[in-house]
Specification:
This protein is of the alpha/beta class and about 270 residues long. Helices cover about 40% and strands about 15% of the residues. The chain has a single domain, classed as Rossmann fold (3-Layer(aba) Sandwich).
Length: about 270
């Protein structure tokens, strides 16, 4: 009893360095050890909480590992058919324009069966946020090759590695949507280190705030790992991701609002 009391004495508001956002439910995360999904969930929940948007948010999850998200964040959710999240988000946002609407999708969903929905929603400039988790493989259904699987990368359906002569090249969806006139902010980030988590959270906060401006689609790719299907430990998978995924999918902003470019140019001129 004395030990329990001692712990309660330590866990006081003034002694807390970090605590779980109230938007995260008590449901234990069911992802594989080392998976980036949990960190991405936490960042998203923190942003929604800090921006005071819990009652104003509607999230859309399709099929894949992302479908589990509605168990972990306490907001309104709508499940979509495989790949159809951007189409459903379009309908919800048009019917309820005052709501903050986002999709959370994996690469097998967004860049394969959902390619058309993704491209056309972004091209129309639907005022939604699309969060795209890219681990280069189908995670939930057995580790099959995805549109984002790297050249030479092994999967359950490319056991000798992806042969681009037969299977085609990996699809760089974020690069594609960045060229579309309807997108307002497009960025590619990761969550494998504390520094990268901070950058991703900053990017996600921007995307959430930009939706209030009603100027088009925001698109965030998070390059992540899949230790189980990559057949690696979490540490090994992060190192492999840095050495192989990042050169092909380089991190950073691909498209920023025009007014930001103007502001940066003005500041540079002042400094000169």
């Amino acid at each position: 009893m004395a030990e329990v009391t001692g712990i309660k004495e330590i866990i006081k508001p003034e002694n807390l360095v970090y605590k779980k956002t109230k938007l995260m439910t008590d449901k234990v995360l069911s992802y594989c050890p080392g998976c980036g999904h949990g960190t991405a969930h936490r960042i998203l929940a923190e942003i929604i909480d800090e921006e005071g948007l819990q009652s104003e948010t509607i999230g859309i999850c399709p099929v894949g590992c992302s479908v589990l998200l509605y168990e972990f964040i306490d907001i309104d959710w709508q499940e979509a058919a495989h790949g159809r999240a951007p189409a459903l988000a379009t309908a919800i946002k048009r019917l309820l324009p005052e709501k903050f609407v986002f999709t959370y999708q994996g690469d097998g969903d967004l860049a394969a069966i959902g390619t058309a929905e993704t491209i056309h929603a972004c091209n129309r400039g639907e005022n939604i946020l699309i969060i795209f988790i890219n681990n280069g493989i189908y995670g939930m259904t057995g580790g099959q090759m995805a549109p984002t699987t790297l050249p030479g990368m092994r999967s359950s359906t490319s056991p000798y590695g992806r042969d681009v002569k037969i299977m085609g090249n990996p699809l760089k969806m974020t690069d594609i949507v960045a060229t579309l006139l309807g997108t307002y902010y497009v960025t590619r980030q990761s969550v494998h280190t504390p520094a990268n988590v901070k950058k991703t959270k900053k990017a996600m906060r921007k995307a959430v705030q930009y939706q209030k401006l009603n100027k088009g689609t925001c698109f965030i790719e998070i390059v992540s790992n899949c230790p189980s299907n990559w057949k690696m430990t979490p540490v090994q998978s992060n190192k492999w991701m840095e050495e192989n995924m990042f050169p092909y999918y380089p991190l950073g902003d691909l498209k920023i609002p025009a007014e930001q470019i103007t502001q940066k140019t003005s500041n540079s001129e002042k400094n000169d």
